[in-house]
Structures are given as C-alpha cells and as structure tokens.
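dude i think i finally got it to work??
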Amino acid sequence: QLQVVESGGGLVQPGGSLRLSCAASGFTLDYYAIGWFRQAPGKEREGVSCISSSHGSTYYADSVEGRFTISRDNAKNTVYLQMNSLKPEDTAVYYCAARARGSVITLCTSSTYDVWGQGTQVTVSS
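look at this
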C-alpha cells in the first residue's frame, strides 16, 4: 500500500521556522514527484512547493519563494519542506502528495497527484 505521512507541524511565532517531513512507505520516493500543498480555512487547496522525480526540478508558489525550501533525501525515502520567516498567512493544514507520472508543466497541480497524506497543522501566531 502506497502511503505518505507528514510530520513536523505545530505552533510557531511569526518569523520562526519549521521543517515538515514527508515519509513514504510502500514505494521508492526516487521515482515519484512530491508536492506540498496547503489549505487554510475557507480557502482552496494550493500548491506550495513541489519537486520532480528526475532532474530535481522545483516549483515554489510566489507567496513562499525565498522563504521555503523543498528537498529530498532518497536514502531516507523522505522529502522535507524547510519553512523560514513564517507569516500568519502561512497558517494552514499542509499536505504531502506523490505522483508517478506527469508533466513538469503541471508539477504543482494538485489534481495530478494520487497519493495523499492526512495533513499536518501549521499555525503561525504570536
């Protein structure tokens, strides 16, 4: 059974940092694109950052460019999202997702992903 499990969420003050982890089981992460998506109350799910399976192409939403960094550790079968300079508007449930196939053009389009985690809450508040 293919699964991804997120961890690392929590409560942090504005300007703080968190590192989210996405651990895969039942498949080898090397051959999958991995995406981080988030959904805030009353808003649609949005692509935050995604990384391709080959060449390591990455995508960042404009709202997180320069603050978030996505990386993969294939030896640990895990993808990370380092989040720095967090803002209250980053508050959301963050989801990790995986897909085996797809175009780089749609790298961070949520409908192209078919393995989803349960999500981890990130709250940025003083």
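The mean pLDDT is 94.
im so relieved honestly
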